[in-house]
């Protein structure tokens, strides 16, 4: 009778059995990961790495996860992110790019010539009406009720905002290395063949097994209209190297050394997918072309290259990000406008419309969409 394979946790070395096994996402769930592996890390290590390493990685990519509306498998959207405008106004960025004030603003100023100037911004209609009720109590001689009837709620527009991005580091770097080992595990490469990377994850004082790589583009025919994550594995028995390439959102690009004494077969496999949908895509990564000098640069963490190379990655990725966001916002606006128009006209999903009702719906839908359309027009000028 054949013996069942014995698996060890890649992080602590404990034997993995049914009672302590866990499902580990190859790419962390928080940034859109879907594919999972078993018999890779134990449940306790999964929890610890998730709360520390993957959480730091998720934090570094929180802006992208929010603006691109990256959903978990359960359908839960990415958490909101606080951003700051160049005039120091703080707003929350919600999934899909929706913006919200972190708190209502209020200003009540006495004018030199007499009277008062009152201005405020609220996050919701309910909050605005609450502020107006407070003003009514404070200044009973004025009628604020008419203002409550004519409230117009618009999306917050921050103007120019600033965001700082940094990728990698100790904790997020360990998440990236874990992803590379998980990918190797998923294609049948045993853990002992990833000795260099496993040693790094198990020993906090070990030399980092990864390095940022921006010296040149390793993606063959890089897509110019799609956001993707990719994890690729290459085994080179001639030079005794087993290594990986991990790229997130087109910006963070890393080479991970899994072994410097590889003796297995020649291998090259990749897993790429769209994190906004989970759809897998075909993508070729040219890992075999990495030279010995480039490998040395990675091992010495000197392959990030110049500021110009980093900017080139941003100039590639950010237009795609914003085009995806615009498409999502347009789709959401149309869907919401249609739903609101149907409610206003008393229509039901799937209901057949006569010519008169169809015209009423078209007119109502246009009116509901007008704030969104005007916002788009203003942003173009």
Automatic annotation (TrEMBL):
Residues 9-62 form the HNH endonuclease domain. Keywords: Endonuclease, Hydrolase, Nuclease. CDD domains: HNHc (cd00085). Signal peptide: none annotated. Gene3D superfamilies: 1.10.30.50. GO terms for molecular function: endonuclease activity. It holds the Pfam family HNH_5. This is HNH endonuclease. It comes from Dyella caseinilytica.
């Amino acid at each position: 009778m054949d013996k069942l394979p014995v698996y060890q946790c890649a992080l602590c070395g404990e034997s993995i059995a049914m009672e302590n096994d866990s499902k580990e996402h190859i790419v962390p769930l928080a940034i859109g990961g879907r594919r999972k592996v078993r018999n890779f890390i134990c449940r306790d290590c999964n929890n610890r790495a998730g709360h520390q390493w993957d959480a730091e990685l998720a934090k570094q990519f929180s802006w992208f996860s929010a603006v691109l509306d990256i959903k978990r498998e359960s359908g839960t959207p990415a958490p909101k992110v606080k951003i700051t405008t160049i005039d120091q106004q703080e707003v929350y960025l919600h999934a899909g790019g929706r913006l919200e004030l972190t708190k209502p603003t209020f200003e009540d100023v006495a004018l030199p010539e007499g009277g008062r100037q009152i201005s405020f911004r609220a996050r919701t209609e309910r909050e605005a009406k609450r502020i107006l009720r407070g003003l009514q109590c404070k200044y009973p001689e004025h009628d604020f009720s008419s203002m409550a009837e004519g409230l117009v709620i618009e999306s917050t527009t921050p103007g120019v905002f600033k965001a700082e991005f940094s990728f990698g580091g100790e904790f997020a770097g360990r998440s990236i290395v874990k992803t590379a080992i998980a990918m190797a595990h998923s294609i049948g490469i045993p853990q002992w063949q990833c000795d260099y990377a496993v040693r790094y994850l198990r020993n906090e004082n070990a030399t980092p097994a990864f390095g940022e790589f921006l010296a040149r583009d390793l993606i063959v025919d890089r897509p110019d209209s799609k956001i993707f994550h990719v994890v690729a594995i290459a085994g080179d028995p001639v030079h005794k190297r087993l290594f990986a390439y991990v790229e997130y959102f087109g910006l963070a690009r890393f080479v991970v050394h899994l072994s410097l004494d590889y003796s297995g077969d020649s291998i090259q496999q990749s897993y790429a997918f769209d994190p906004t949908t989970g759809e897998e895509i075909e993508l070729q990564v040219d890992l075999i072309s990495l030279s010995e000098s480039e490998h040395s640069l990675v091992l010495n963490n000197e392959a990030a290259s110049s500021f110009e190379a980093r900017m080139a990655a941003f100039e590639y990725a950010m237009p795609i990000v914003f085009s995806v966001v615009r498409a999502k916002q347009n789709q959401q606006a149309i869907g919401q406008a249609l739903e609101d128009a149907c409610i206003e006209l008393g229509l039901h999903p799937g209901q057949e419309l006569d010519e008169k009702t169809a015209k009423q719906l078209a007119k109502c839908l246009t009116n509901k969409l007008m704030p969104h359309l005007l916002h788009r027009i203003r942003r173009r000028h």
